[in-house]
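Researcher: We plan to redesign the surface later, but first we want a full-length starting point. Tokens attached.
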């Protein structure tokens, strides 16, 4: 999400004639784009701003701007404690950046704009992307789900969807710029709705765009995953057989307290449908441990769901209290050492499952998109399977952006090793 927003901001500034510099000491303006979802990310931003302050001490004319969710969340604290930050802009105010920059050059006052909008989807603006394989395309913004742990509805505002026309234009432009993979983005991507077009229809329409080799999306909400979506994924050559299916917790009591709107049984039923309907699918998830009131029994239920589903990979987090959220008011917060212990056990189990899922791929031939040279050796390529697993294999005749059949020969932790079996590029 943040990469996409940074590319959007870059696009807005480039349109006005501003250029990026690789050397921070040369910059006339420095912007930091921030995320407030977890407190860990916030700590990093504070230390980064300290570094920019040191730069400003030797170049007092440089303008420092803090953009995005954290700006929204922490504007008062920043204005009070970090007076060297000149501009604070929330995630719905990026369009105003060029005017704000001009005003700031005329006047030394701080400029703050964190107003959230019910409508801003940045239609008609094109992100500035570095050359590459994958282009992120934002299709909706905000979220109305109000999970009790999550700050997103407060920092990014109400849910709103972009018109299919402008999304398709952006995808076509990205393909024209030689991107071969598109990832559709949204905080709650599958609650997309624009007139009578829902997420499944949009996904299918985009998959028909000529030249698109791979189509992915993130992050869906389990309550909005339906069979029709899974059938469309299974029936399309270029929609990848990979799905992010965020569990968060395994016990119904905790799911209810989290306001996740699905039960453990619903989650398990759909996880099974995903595996049954989409052959060779890769399922990733997000899990939070130590949510207020989580008992050892509740945590055991999370481990049980993991054992049943056997996720291919998982992003795992210790619960952290976020401002404005309902969960911050609960009076049964969990000790840090208990959270840490649960996280360690959860990670160990996930490592076991990842290895298990990867070992099942040994001897299978899968399509791999060649993405880059392997960090380990310049004789090897590194690429992803449709199901979103990294594979390393000898270069031979393939080149970057080819899709080639690769026989998996070994599985170590998260990555696979393979051997090429000829070249096969497919454009629908
Ligand atoms: N819209 C996505 C999640 C976006 S936030 C969804 O509904 O799944 C990304 C992830 O950060 C969440 O899935 C959650 O696992 C984690 N997260 C969000 N708030 C958190 C908090 N307060 N503490 C710990 N993890 C959190
Ligand atoms: Fe946050 Fe996702 Fe829940 Fe929305 S659906 S409130 S973004 S966790």
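Model: Full-length starting sequence:
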């Amino acid at each position: 999400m943040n990469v996409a927003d940074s590319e959007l901001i870059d696009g807005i500034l480039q349109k006005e004639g501003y250029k990026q510099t690789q050397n921070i000491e040369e910059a006339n303006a420095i912007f930091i784009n921030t995320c407030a979802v977890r407190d860990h990310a916030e700590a990093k931003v504070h230390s980064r701003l300290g570094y920019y302050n040191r730069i400003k001490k030797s170049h007092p004319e440089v303008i420092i701007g803090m953009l995005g969710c954290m700006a929204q969340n922490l504007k008062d604290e920043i204005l009070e404690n970090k007076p060297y930050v000149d501009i604070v802009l929330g995630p719905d105010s990026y369009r105003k950046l060029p005017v704000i920059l001009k005003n700031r050059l005329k006047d030394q006052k701080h400029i703050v704009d964190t107003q959230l909008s019910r409508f801003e989807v940045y239609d008609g603006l094109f992100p500035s992307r570095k050359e590459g394989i994958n282009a992120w395309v934002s299709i909706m913004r905000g979220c109305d789900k109000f999970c009790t742990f999550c700050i997103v509805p407060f920092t990014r505002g109400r849910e709103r969807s972009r018109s299919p026309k402008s999304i398709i234009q952006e995808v076509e432009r990205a393909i024209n710029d030689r991107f071969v993979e598109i990832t559709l983005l949204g905080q709650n991507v599958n609650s997309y709705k624009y007139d009578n077009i829902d997420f499944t229809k949009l996904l299918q329409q985009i998959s028909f765009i000529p030249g698109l080799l791979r189509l992915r999306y993130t992050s869906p909400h389990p309550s909005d995953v339906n069979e029709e979506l899974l059938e469309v994924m299974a029936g399309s050559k270029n929609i990848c057989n990979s799905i992010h299916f965020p569990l968060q917790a395994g016990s119904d009591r905790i799911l209810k307290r989290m306001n996740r709107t699905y039960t453990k049984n619903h989650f398990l039923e759909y996880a099974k449908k995903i595996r049954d309907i989409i052959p060779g699918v890769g399922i990733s998830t997000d899990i939070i441990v130590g949510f207020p009131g989580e008992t050892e029994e509740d945590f055991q239920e999370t481990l049980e769901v993991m054992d049943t589903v056997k996720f291919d990979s998982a992003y795992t987090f210790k619960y952290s209290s976020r401002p404005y959220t309902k969960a911050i008011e609960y009076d049964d917060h969990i000790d840090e050492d208990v959270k840490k212990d649960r996280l360690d056990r959860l990670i160990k189990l996930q490592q076991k499952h990842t290895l298990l899922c990867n070992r099942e791929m040994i001897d299978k031939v899968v399509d791999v998109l060649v993405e880059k040279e392997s960090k380990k050796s310049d004789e090897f390529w590194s690429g992803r399977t449709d199901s979103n697993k990294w594979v390393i294999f000898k270069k031979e005749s393939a080149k970057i952006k080819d899709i080639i059949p690769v026989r998996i020969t070994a599985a170590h932790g998260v990555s696979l090793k393979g051997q090429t079996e000829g070249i096969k590029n497919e454009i629908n």
